[in-house]
Amino acid sequence: MAKAKPAPARPRIGLALGGGSARGWAHIGAIRVLEEAGVRPDLVCGTSIGALVGAAYVAGELDRLETWVRSLKLQTVVSFLDFTLGGGLIKGDKLIEFFRAHFVDRDIRELERPYGAVATDLARGREIWLREGGVSDAVRASIALPGLFTPVVHDGTWLVDGGLVNPVPVSLARAMGADFVIAIDLNADILGRHLRNAPASRTRRAKPTLADTVMAQLGIERDDGPAPPAMLDVLASSINIMQVLITRSRLAGEPADAIIAPPLASLGLMEFHRATVAIEAGRRAAEAALPQILERLDGLGASA
User: Fold this and answer.
1) Least confidently predicted of 73-77, 120-124, 133-137, 236-240
2) Beta strand pairing call for 88-90 and 43-47
């Protein structure tokens, strides 16, 4: 009698959460859809805001994080912006201290699933994988967006946002042992977003934007007549260009097995108070990608 073929081993599923500042709340909606379908990653890694959401997810804090981000108002976001002109506009201390006090702050190795965050060595341009040490320290380094958040010193090295080198960390997920990587790319449709709908005159603005509020905090007046894009708009668009091109290059050389790409062009870099919009966009994108994800996992022997 012929022996029955053994069932294929279940693949290790890795979740790679991309960077994208305020657009990162879309990760929450996408994760919800995967969980509801029974797709529970064995390991999680993230860049920038993806590192923050990923840390909360692995630590079992996603419900609390979602409740908090949905409650954010523009005034709350501004209150976290501890302005400085030394290395960046924002120190980031207030934000990370809030995260440290209200969410997970354990050693990475104590988390229930493998977790990693990506940062960039500012002096050498090297990609740094943070796999040990405090969760909050890893998150703070990974979100240090150049020009906005001040750099973080780690083992004698200044670290900045991992999006400079690896906006969607598929390579880290593979290195951590993932056989099947689901990547969430937040930058698929954002080129020119901050300039696309720029008004011809500042006087036509219906209400102040977050950029207006930040400029006012810094004591910088904006002209009423036609003007070039504001400093923060230029900075945001420049970061978008960088992240999109790097993302395309990295994903071409290190492709994921499945990509979820929420349409997030309507969200600004620092519009953290628009979490509901981002979360729903992440949910819709994940629902659209789910049939293909389940089909591929079934073919590999995974049970959803």
Assistant:
1) 236-240
2) unpaired
- Whether 304 and 273 have beta carbons less than 8 Å apart is answered as no
Q: How far apart are CA 22 and CA 24, in angstroms?
A: 5
User: Is 189 one of the catalytic residues?
Assistant: no
Cα-based distances in Å from 155 to 159, 166, 232: 10, 21, 31
4 vs 74, more confident: 74
**Cα-Cα-Cα-Cα dihedral sign, residues 177, 14, 304, 67:** positive
Q: Determine whether 161 is an active site residue.
A: yes
Q: What is the pLDDT of residues 138-152, one digit of tens each?
A: 998 998 887 677 788
Please name which of 257, 255, 301, 262 lies closest in space to residue 282, comparing C-alpha atoms: 262
Q: Do 73 and 164 touch, CB atoms closer than 8 A?
A: no
The one catalytic residue in 21, 42, 48, 185 is 48
Catalytic residue among 21, 136, 137, 161: 161
From 167, 184, 173, 180, select the one nearest 285 (Cα to Cα): 184
Least Cα distance to 74 among 251, 284, 270, 297 occurs for 270
The letter for the amino acid at 31 is I
One-letter amino acid at 146 equals P
